[in-house]
Structures are given as structure tokens and as C-alpha cells.
């Protein structure tokens, strides 16, 4: 009997999920991370050059959205992660991961069972992240808008995370967007967890974070370019701009 051949069927393509479609650059994030956490970088996503150059170039071309001209130092990465209980951490989300200095430190410290979800809007920086963490099965790199991280986590079946780490330039975001990110963080962080924000303007925004959180501790990091620090925040008070 002749084997029956099935003609190639049209592949159903789902529209890009709203969470990733909103606030996207012209190139537009794709949703391939849903099926493969480390899709190939692709022709326009194989960044050449060292991390400092990719950050510098992104800063020179995008300015405020990148907020820093250099990747965080190892000292900054250690400081933002200091105190996390890696034995119990089930999942951690990092917003605005850049070239991945903090992600790399998490990979070094975390158990392979801890799920690390990393979101970056810039396609070139995201390409670097995907190259860098391709060999780390517990890292999922998402090319997408971190202001929608609640939806991005929900799409992946993650209702709660132990900590939210943010490299986003939150103070320069419109107040209502900042409110929404912090309210999402408050909803998403499991009991006992923290919201951790890095900065390259030490203590300048302490009052801002105190408006949102009951308890804010600032950790200074002198060995960073430029010197900066980390706000570790607990006890969300509610959105400042309802
Ligand atoms: C100050 S850099 C921090 C990079 C990295 N975490 C580090 O410590 O070196 C801020 C990063 O946030 C990213 N970013 C800005 N807005 C974003 C958004 N809405 N969604 C995702 N990433 C964003 C920028 O592209 C940039 O990589």
C-alpha cells in the first residue's frame, strides 16, 4: 500500500500577545520566547562588540530609556542580590536586564531549580542576553516591554515571584506607568519578597520610593561606573497617582 502523504498544512500563527505588542520599538518584539526560551538571535540580533560598547551605543542613541552608559559592575550585581535566599527562591523576574551583569550573577548563585525571567526591550541588548544565557535552562529571556511584566509572567503561568529586580529608569517614566509597574510588583511578589531597584544617582530618589513603600533601604555601591546603589523596598503603600 502506498503511504498516504499529507500536504503541508498552513501553520496557525497567533498574533503577538498584547503584552509584547504594546510599547514596542519599530522592529517589534516577537513572541517566540513562549515556545523556546532561547530562540536564535537572528540576523539583526547578533550583536558584535563587548558589553560596554553595546550599552554605550544604546545610551548614545536612546538616552533616557537606557539611563546608564555602562553595564552594572559585579559589585552592583552582588549588592542587588544580597540577602536573597537562594535555597527557597522559586522564581525571580528582572526588568531591564541590559547586557546581563545581574542575570549572570543570579545564574552563578541560583539553584538550577530557580526560574529566572529576564525582560529587555532593546533587541540588540536582548540578542546579547540570549547569546549569553543560551546554556542556562533556568533563564528565560523575553524581548518585551517590562511595564507589562504582570501579563508576561501570567502568559507563562507564573502568578508569583520571590523578588522583582529592576534596572528600569523608573523615575523618568510617566507617573502612571511607574504606579502601574509598582502596583504589579506588589501584587506579584510573594510574601516576604522584595522589590529591588538599581540606580546610578545614589539616594536622589529615596523619597520617591518611600512614597510607594513602607520600608526602603538604600545600599551604596561605590565601585560602579558611575557610582550608584540599590533600593530594597518592602510593604507597598499603594499607587501614588491613583
Ligand atoms: C540602566 S540600564 C540597566 C541594564 C542592566 N540591568 C545593568 O545593570 O547593567 C536600563 C535597561 O532597561 C531597559 N529598558 C528600558 N525601558 C524598558 C522597558 N519598558 N522594558 C524592558 N526594558 C527596558 C533598557 O533597554 C536598558 O537595558
From TrEMBL:
Residues 1-10 have a biased composition (Pro residues). Keywords: Methyltransferase, RNA-binding, S-adenosyl-L-methionine, Transferase. Residues 76-222 form the Ribosomal RNA adenine methylase transferase N-terminal domain. InterPro entries: KsgA/Erm, rRNA_Ade_Mease_Trfase_CS, rRNA_Ade_methylase_Trfase_N, SAM-dependent_MTases_sf. It comes from Gemmata palustris. This is Methyltransferase domain-containing protein. It comes from the Bacteria. SUPFAM superfamilies: S-adenosyl-L-methionine-dependent methyltransferases (SSF53335).
Amino acid at each position: 500500500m502506498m503511504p498516504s502523504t499529507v500536504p503541508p498544512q498552513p501553520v496557525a500563527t497567533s498574533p503577538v500577545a498584547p503584552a509584547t505588542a504594546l510599547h514596542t520599538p519599530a522592529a517589534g518584539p516577537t513572541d517566540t520566547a513562549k515556545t523556546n526560551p532561547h530562540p536564535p538571535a537572528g540576523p539583526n540580533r547578533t550583536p558584535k562588540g563587548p558589553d560596554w560598547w553595546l550599552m554605550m551605543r544604546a545610551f548614545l542613541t536612546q538616552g533616557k530609556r537606557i539611563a546608564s552608559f555602562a553595564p552594572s559592575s559585579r559589585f552592583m550585581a552582588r549588592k542587588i542580590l544580597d540577602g536573597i535566599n537562594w535555597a527557597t527562591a522559586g522564581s525571580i523576574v528582572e526588568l531591564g536586564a541590559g547586557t546581563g551583569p545581574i542575570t549572570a550573577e543570579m545564574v552563578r548563585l541560583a539553584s538550577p531549580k530557580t526560574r529566572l525571567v529576564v525582560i529587555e526591550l532593546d533587541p540588540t541588548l536582548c540578542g546579547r542576553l540570549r547569546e549569553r544565557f543560551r546554556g542556562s535552562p533556568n533563564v528565560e529571556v523575553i524581548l518585551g516591554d517590562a511595564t507589562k511584566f504582570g501579563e508576561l509572567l501570567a502568559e507563562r503561568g507564573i502568578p508569583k515571584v520571590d523578588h522583582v529586580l529592576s534596572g528600569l529608569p523608573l523615575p523618568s517614566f510617566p507617573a502612571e506607568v511607574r504606579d502601574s509597574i509598582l502596583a504589579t510588583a506588589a501584587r506579584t511578589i510573594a510574601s516576604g519578597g522584595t522589590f529591588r531597584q538599581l540606580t546610578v544617582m545614589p539616594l536622589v530618589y529615596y523619597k520617591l520610593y518611600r512614597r510607594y513603600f513602607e520600608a526602603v533601604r538604600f545600599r551604596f555601591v561605590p565601585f560602579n561606573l558611575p557610582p550608584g546603589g540599590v533600593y530594597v523596598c518592602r510593604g507597598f503603600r499603594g499607587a501614588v497617582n491613583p
